[in-house]
Design a protein that fits this description.
Catalyzes the ATP-dependent phosphorylation of thiamine-monophosphate (TMP) to form thiamine-pyrophosphate (TPP), the active form of vitamin B1. The protein is α+β, with helices and mostly antiparallel strands. It is built from ten helices and 13 strands. It folds into two domains: 135 residues, 60s Ribosomal Protein L30, Chain: A, CATH 3.30.1330.10; 157 residues, Phosphoribosyl-aminoimidazole Synthetase, Chain A, domain 2 (Alpha-Beta Complex), CATH 3.90.650.10. The strands form three sheets. The protein has a seven-stranded mixed beta sheet with strand order 8-10-7-11-9-12-13, sandwiched between helices. It has a four-stranded mixed beta sheet with strand order 3-6-4-5. It has a two-stranded antiparallel ribbon with strand order 1-2. The longest helix has 18 residues. The mean pLDDT is 91.
């Protein structure tokens, strides 16, 4: 008997998958039946990954499954949302049972970790493309947005920056790093960790937030545009891993931290009046966010400083952008 679309769904995306009580009907009908939490607003995010654009042939299928969910969960985290449901649209050139086994494993693992249920989607034949839509909840009126930053707010980032970019550069032979450093940054590129808990804890503290997917400079620029403010960044304060600082010159490392995509950390602003509450809150987090600068009243202007002087990036890139 031929192995068809519905066999694929049943075999790889139905059996042994995590379920939630608020999904009355998930996979198996024409649509999902869901019950949003009372007093909550629904946050929805969609991302697509295309073979040859977002990943190449050497990217493990398990990493693709993990990452396509992680990038959406990172968007939810940036808005302070609690993840709930995912839907998947998967386009495959042909049936590859080994690839599907590892892809579904990566997707299932991250869904279970963040208490998400796969509720449906679509499978088609064509060039390898993976699209996930994630949905989550945030208490009414508490969603974090990009348009709330005010002059005087402090600018923070979570984690370290530039590691995924360094891994990609090493893969493409544009950077030379030790094996130990390479394995660490490759993990950051393949298996990013969305800052879901941090995002939820910032709901009533941060004045704006965004996740760093296209590079700090580019994504912070979205906050500046939406909020009609500027920013001053001390590049010496950018959080960087030993892999980055030991593999590149100081200026190159700063450039990667500012411009490399795929970090999936959070960048957010905190008003002076809430900074004490914020410091108390983040003391519980294993990786305390780093303050890198301050919001200014110079709308749209991102000023980079080092030792009190204007700093110029070695390259002119400001981050990744499709169709640029």
């Amino acid at each position: 008997m031929a192995f068809g679309e519905f066999d694929l769904i049943q075999t790889y995306f139905t059996q042994r998958w995590h379920t939630r009580d608020d999904a009355e009907v998930g996979i198996g009908d024409d649509g999902a039946i869901l019950t949003p939490a009372e007093g909550s607003q629904l946050i929805v995010a969609t991302d697509t990954m295309v073979a040859g654009v977002h990943f190449d042939a050497q990217t493990p299928a398990r990493a693709i499954g993990h990452k396509v969910a992680a990038v959406n969960l990172s968007d939810l985290a940036a808005m302070g949302a609690e993840p709930a449901w995912l839907s998947l649209a998967l386009t495959l050139p042909q049936l590859d049972h080994d690839w599907l086994t590892h892809f579904s494993q990566g997707l299932r693992e991250i869904c279970e970790y963040y208490n998400c249920q796969l509720i449906g989607g679509d499978t088609t034949q064509g060039p390898l493309t993976v699209t996930v839509t994630a949905q989550g909840f945030v208490p009414q009126g508490q969603a974090l947005r990009r348009d709330g930053a005010k002059p005087g707010d402090w600018i923070y980032v979570s984690g370290t920056l530039g590691d995924a970019g360094l891994a990609l550069a090493a893969q493409q032979h544009r950077a030379h790093i030790s094996d130990n450093h390479y394995h660490r940054v490759l993990e950051r590129l393949y298996f990013p960790s969305p800052r879901v808990a941090l995002g939820q804890s910032l709901r009533e503290i941060a004045s704006s937030a965004i996740d760093i997917s296209d590079g700090l400079a580019a994504d912070l620029g979205h906050i500046l545009k939406a909020s009609q403010v500027g920013a001053r960044i001390d590049v010496d304060e950018l959080p960087m891993s030993l892999a980055l600082t030991e593999s590149l010159t100081a200026d190159e490392a700063i450039d990667y931290a500012l411009s490399s995509g795929d970090d999936y950390e959070l960048c957010f602003t905190v008003p002076e009046s809430r900074r004490g509450v914020f410091d108390t809150l983040v003391a519980r987090h294993s990786a305390k966010p780093t303050c890198i600068g301050r919001v200014t009243n110079e709308a749209g202007r991102l000023k980079l400083e080092r030792d009190g002087e204007t700093w110029q990036a070695p390259s002119t890139r400001l981050g990744y952008e499709h169709f640029s």
